[in-house]
Queue: 3 jobs
Job 1
Amino acid sequence: MSIKDTPIRQHYADGEVIITEGIMSNNAYVVLKGSVRVTKKIDKKVVAVGTLKEGDVFGEMGLLSKSVRTANVSAMGDVTVGVIDKESFDEAMNGLSEDLKPIILSLVERLKITTELLTRIGLELETTRNKINSYSLKEK
């Protein structure tokens, strides 16, 4: 079965939250229709991480590493997602070679670290941009 052929589908309206940061992972998702916004909370600020479109998968990192969600995901317009439940995901993972599992887990961990760093860089960039804009306004 292809991930796009998941039997469970969920529909979300514009702005509805699909995944909440800090909650334990039970499912991964594939965007079947529409697009979603990924955000992360850093130092009490919400930072945009990216946008995912049809065919993109999210929520897989938590299932692979058995950890809490690392970001928030919300619908941009009307969205339909296919749900990949933990049992199906674990079944697919169990079909992998034992040699591949540590490699995949290592990639997930590195991706988490990279996402965290990029989010912090984005926050610093926004802060710097705001400071520059405030100086520009003062000079006028």
Note: The mean pLDDT is 86.
Job 2
Amino acid sequence: MRWYDVFAHTYDAQLEALYRPYRPAAFDALRLAPGQTVLDLACGTGQNFDGLAERLGPAGRVVGLDASEGMLKKARARADRLGLEAALVHADATAAAYPPVDAVLATLAFTALPDPDAAFARALDALRPGGRFVLLDVHAERRRFQTWLVEKIARADLNRRPWTLLEAALDDVSRTDLNAPAKTFGGTLYVAAGTKRAL
């Protein structure tokens, strides 16, 4: 994750304005109630924190996991500015120990994580029955120069289809393609969501 430690210095300036208009679709899909706890998987610099704080209220809590210390340093500063209760965990997503959570949000994560299947299984174990698991990510059905560029910068694979992980394990799974220009994002920006089955 050394590259992401370096990337953390310019990450917000390069990407925050680009993705901000599309994040509310993922927040809405979480169906949060005030006071709940959300796992922000591969939370990066905490760009989701503002929207999560609005929906969770002062009693809510975010567990932010990232493998980059540089990203988490920025995320801690953002959480402190917002007055958001956030437990930030520096760990590999396949080996992290999570507390029970009411929802999981993974933004631009499963196209970049080295072992998405194991990371999904670990996060799903922490999700309470009835909780929502939401992805905001990019899929390149048709490859173009921007696809290659995004993959190089983000160390990602936009050919992956991580919503199939949700389809295999969750109920009420949906995928919605967002009205975002593929030439900007390297592919189709989408939100996928599902609900963990009751025991």
Note: The helical segments are 2-19, 23-30, 49-56, 69-82, 116-126, 145-154, 163-169, 182-185.
Job 3
Amino acid sequence: MNLNPNMSRLFKFTPVLILALTLFSCDDNDLMDQQTDFSTVPDAPDTSDAERIEKDNGLVIYIIEEGDGEFKASDRDQVLIRYTMRSLSNGEMEIHDSTWANDETSPTELNLATAIFGVRQGMQGMREGGERVLIIPPELAYEGQDEEFADDTLHFHVELEQVLDN
């Protein structure tokens, strides 16, 4: 079937037009109402029997699982991790971010050289397969930055899946 040039152009731009109309039909309130589902995030691990290391700068490291992987993380490695970031808010631990959110099962890639200092220092020497809880004071996290939890002590539950570069 031969279409005249005007009809041909119309068919080419129809998908773009539909996408634009869909995007413009959503107002900001629709996007704001979409919340992250943390119901699939595992509970924070019990640290009562874990090895506890306290650094001079206030960082506390609980070693839940030592790990048995061949490689250990250094402060400049690219790694695959699963994590949950919590902070104490109104007397309860509140989840701010997690790789398990929205029923996700995949780890995320992290460049330790660009991570907040508490995570970078807390993961040093961690073996693949290891699991730690890092209690990070504000001065080792987002202090001085325009973050909603800049004054909070953060609780990171971290599982190291793989060190990607050595």
Note: The first strand starts at residue 51 and ends at 54.
